[in-house]
Write a structure and sequence with these properties.
This protein is α+β, with helices and mostly antiparallel strands. It has 13 helices and 21 strands. 36% of the residues lie in helices and 21% in strands. Strand 1, helix 1 and strand 2 form a beta-alpha-beta unit. Helix 1 packs across helix 6 and helix 8 packs across helix 9.
């Protein structure tokens, strides 16, 4: 039923829910583990979404693993938060990572050929791009030994070997979109086109090959770059390559990735040809056109941190930004600004940009802080993420950029200090 040669000598932990598929996989691996030198363990996750029913399923798995003398690691969801299907999935993935940390080479899940077809059809119906067509694959630390097995083959194996299993009653309803595809769409598709499930698998492998090609192209050419101030996508006139780069960038923002549409990708592609400073908001993100790149950031602005009295400030971090007052210059990657400590008034605070702020440049000349940032070509997306030393609306120092003329060092200066911060002029 399964080709185990490629897993020879591995430490495999089977994810067992107690259902038909996972019990078939557990049985098969247990029967053939010695033949291929496989060290077999199991894990079970009780996410408590189905209450007493899921607890009963876990008890079934515990008893069966004890009967087969297969070591079992049991996880129970004890954290707070809403127990949605997507949240449960992320929690299970966290459990998989834990058993790998404990020594397993891989976690084996019981996904099969029909599961792959359901995934491809579901993503196709949602208008997914090539990324959604690659179906279910092995990923780092997770293997799918039964991915070439059909639903019918698994049912036959269960019957022939008289394997006991538990049923999740939610699998028999059409409340979930996947169940509708499983119960209604796939059977009718197989009736209309015999072998459709296997053909969909072959198509998903082709899609995976193209996906890997584009992914490598984006990586080799450094088209996507993640920084502390956003994810940058280099301008690219080849639409297919650019859209793939966007998907790679969006994948960094896990919470919104599944909700993107082809219209979003088209708008981001067209943003490349707009003038600098143009922006496009979508799914809680903002995309900016900046020179030869598009930059994606979260919409939330980093300006809610409370101000800190300058005289009380210690350490080297203000609201996640490196910001240090000291007697020596900083290291590479930072900018050190010398200033006269005695010229800092008692009213001075450290905070972010506010409306009405004014700045007297080093050497003279007062401007609104926003206009000054424009002159310095500081992007809008990071302006209110730059730590400032201020007294009222008078800006005394812009971290990583410049000090005000009002605190400059002169021949009468006695107390010199350095403001060390990220270099916002040299790294943006």
């Amino acid at each position: 039923m399964i080709n185990l040669a490629k897993y020879a000598g591995m430490k495999i932990c089977v994810a067992v829910s107690g259902g038909k598929d996972s019990m078939a996989l557990l049985h098969y691996l247990n029967m053939h583990s010695k033949e291929f030198g496989i060290s077999l363990t199991a894990l079970n996750c009780d996410h408590k979404i189905r209450g007493a029913a899921s607890a009963s399923d876990s008890e079934f798995v515990k008893k069966k693993c004890a009967e087969l003398k297969i070591p079992l690691t049991f996880f129970e969801w004890e954290c707070g938060g809403e127990r949605t299907e997507s949240a449960a999935r992320e929690w299970r993935l966290g459990c998989y990572r834990k058993v790998i940390e404990l020594g397993a080479d891989a976690v084996a899940t019981a996904h099969h050929l029909n599961d792959n077809a359901e995934t491809v059809l579901f993503n196709l119906a949602r208008g997914s791009g090539l990324l959604g067509m690659k179906g279910i694959n092995d990923v780092e630390g997770i293997i799918r030994p039964m991915i070439l097995c059909t639903r019918e083959q698994i049912d036959r194996y269960i019957n022939d070997n008289e394997i006991r299993f538990v049923e999740d009653e939610s699998n028999f309803t059409d409340d979930y979109t996947r169940n509708k595809i499983r119960h209604n769409v796939l059977p009718e598709l197989e009736n209309a086109v015999p072998g459709a499930v296997k053909a969909i698998y072959r198509f998903s492998r082709i899609a995976l090959e193209y996906e890997e090609y584009f992914d490598n192209l984006v990586s080799v050419n450094g088209i996507v770059k993640q920084t502390s101030y956003g994810t940058e996508i280099s301008i690219c006139n080849e639409k297919a390559v650019f859209k793939h780069a966007v998907l790679k960038a969006l994948n960094i923002f896990k919470s919104v990735f599944k909700d993107y549409t082809s219209a979003h990708l088209e708008s981001l592609y067209n943003l490349q040809f707009s003038e600098n400073g143009k922006r496009f908001g979508f799914l809680g993100l903002v995309a900016y056109k900046e020179g030869n790149k598009i930059v994606l950031t979260e919409s939330a602005e980093l300006c809610s941190c409370e101000e800190i009295a300058f005289g009380n400030y210690r350490g080297d971090n203000y609201c996640g930004r490196y910001f240090k007052i000291c007697g020596t210059e900083g290291e590479n990657g930072t900018k050190s600004l010398r200033f006269d400590l005695d010229k800092i008034p008692d009213t001075a605070v450290i905070r972010f940009m506010r409306s009405g702020d004014k700045f007297t440049k080093f050497g003279g000349g007062t401007k609104n802080l926003g206009d000054y940032f424009t002159d310095k070509k500081i992007p809008l997306r990071i302006r209110n993420k730059i730590p400032l030393i201020t007294s009222g609306n008078e800006i005394l120092a812009v971290g990583g950029v410049e000090i005000s003329d009002k605190i400059k060092i002169t021949e009468n200066t006695k107390n010199i200090r350095f403001l060390v911060c990220e270099d916002f002029c040299g790294s943006i």
